[in-house]
Write a structure and sequence with these properties.
The chain is of the alpha+beta class. It contains one helix and two strands. The longest helix is centred in the middle third of the chain and has 13 residues.
Amino acid sequence: MRDSDKKKVFISYAREDIEVAERLYSDLKDAGLEPASIGK
Protein backbone atom coordinates (compact mmCIF):
# COMPACT_ATOMS: atom_id res chain seq x y z
CA MET A 1 0.00 0.00 0.00
CA ARG A 2 1.36 3.44 -0.91
CA ASP A 3 1.77 5.96 1.91
CA SER A 4 -0.73 8.27 0.20
CA ASP A 5 -3.35 5.48 0.37
CA LYS A 6 -3.06 4.96 4.13
CA LYS A 7 -5.83 6.26 6.35
CA LYS A 8 -4.58 8.78 8.90
CA VAL A 9 -5.69 8.72 12.53
CA PHE A 10 -5.15 11.22 15.36
CA ILE A 11 -5.13 9.84 18.90
CA SER A 12 -6.05 12.15 21.77
CA TYR A 13 -5.47 10.89 25.32
CA ALA A 14 -4.88 11.96 28.91
CA ARG A 15 -1.40 11.44 30.35
CA GLU A 16 -2.63 8.73 32.68
CA ASP A 17 -3.81 6.78 29.61
CA ILE A 18 -0.44 6.69 27.80
CA GLU A 19 -0.20 2.88 27.97
CA VAL A 20 -3.61 2.49 26.32
CA ALA A 21 -2.72 5.12 23.70
CA GLU A 22 0.53 3.34 22.86
CA ARG A 23 -1.25 0.01 22.50
CA LEU A 24 -3.89 1.64 20.28
CA TYR A 25 -1.14 3.26 18.19
CA SER A 26 0.51 -0.13 17.65
CA ASP A 27 -2.78 -1.87 16.83
CA LEU A 28 -3.71 0.83 14.30
CA LYS A 29 -0.32 0.55 12.57
CA ASP A 30 -0.74 -3.24 12.43
CA ALA A 31 -4.14 -2.69 10.79
CA GLY A 32 -2.53 -0.62 8.01
CA LEU A 33 -3.52 2.80 9.32
CA GLU A 34 -1.20 5.74 9.90
CA PRO A 35 -1.66 7.11 13.41
CA ALA A 36 0.02 10.39 14.32
CA SER A 37 3.08 10.13 16.56
CA ILE A 38 2.46 9.89 20.28
CA GLY A 39 4.19 12.64 22.24
CA LYS A 40 5.52 11.90 25.67
